[in-house]
Amino acid sequence: GAVVSQHPSRVICKSGTSVKIECRSLDFQATTMFWYRQFPKQSLMLMATSNEGSKATYEQGVEKDKFLINHASLTLSTLTVTSAHPEDSSFYICSALPGTHNEQFFGPGTRLTVL
Amino acid sequence: SQQGEEDPQALSIQEGENATMNCSYKTSINNLQWYRQNSGRGLVHLILIRSNEREKHSGRLRVTLDTSKKSSSLLITASRAADTASYFCATPPRAAGTALIFGKGTTLSVSS
């Protein structure tokens, strides 16, 4: 089956620093990738839709200047959390969509802790 | 915003029992999907049911869909301790192949 990886799996950083999270589709091309955020004991909330070669589309309430998304190739999307604050601590999960399939394939998630 | 509501929020059962989780959603859908998430881990896709299907089976899983009531149920038969996880329903409300909107999830605990 289709595999999506995320790196790093865990990251701890100091407040004010920036953190980059990578999402890769390993055995298929994904013109669209999605970034979700999940706070403890809560559900996944869509943050943004990342389209290869164009600007990401952000959901209401998600600051595009704080959460920078780059979808530079058909197999890689990156999410950079800039000037991280403790309230940004969360589980960030990406998913990738092969072509026009209905099924998305999810990465294993990245646990971000901001001290 | 949340598309669906899972019911119950938490469920505790003994191994061998069946577990039923329900999901309601708000908008018209093309399909509805169920996912499992072990604590602190990524999502595992369990099953997809299309809007023109009423029931679907996969191993010990049985999913039903009632589009008139905008609801779905996930039944896990003969549960095992390894089924302990959170279960989410999700739909692509805008169009097929777009972002998923997740329900709040049901946390299932199966004790041996």
Write up what this structure looks like.
The complex is a heterodimer of chains A (115) and B (112). With 115 residues, chain A is an all-beta fold. Chain A has no helices and eleven strands. In chain A, strands 2, 4, 5, 6, 9, 10 and 11 form a seven-stranded mixed beta sheet that branches. In chain A, β4 (30-38) and β5 form a beta hairpin. Chain A starts with a strand and ends with a strand. By secondary structure, chain B is mainly beta. Chain B contains no helices and eleven strands. In chain B, the strands form two sheets. In chain B, strands 2, 4, 5, 9, 10 and 11 form a six-stranded mixed beta sheet that branches. In chain B, strands 1-3-8-7-6 form a five-stranded antiparallel beta sheet, with no helix packed on it. In chain B, a hairpin with a 2-residue loop joins β6 (55-58) and β7 (61-66). The termini of chain B are far apart. The relative contact order of chain B is 0.35. The mean pLDDT of chain B is 90. At the A-B interface, β4, β5, β9 and β10 of A face β4, β5 and β10 of B.
What separation lies between the terminal Cα atoms of chain B?
36 Å
Radius of gyration of chain A: 13 Å
Global geometry of chain A? globular
Helix content of chain B: under 10%
**What structural class do you assign from the helix and strand content of chain A?**
mainly beta
Shape annotation of chain B: globular
Low-confidence stretches of chain A are: none
Percent strand of chain A equals: over 45%
Biggest β-sheet strands, sense, barrel of chain A: 7 strands, mixed
Multimeric state of these chains?
heterodimer
- Indicate the mean pLDDT of chain A: 92
**What amount of the residues of chain B lies in strands?**
over 45%
The number of helical runs of chain A is 0
Number of helices of chain B: 0
Low-confidence segments of chain B, given as residue ranges, are: none
DSSP summary, beta strand count of chain B:
11
Please give the number of β-strands of chain A. 11
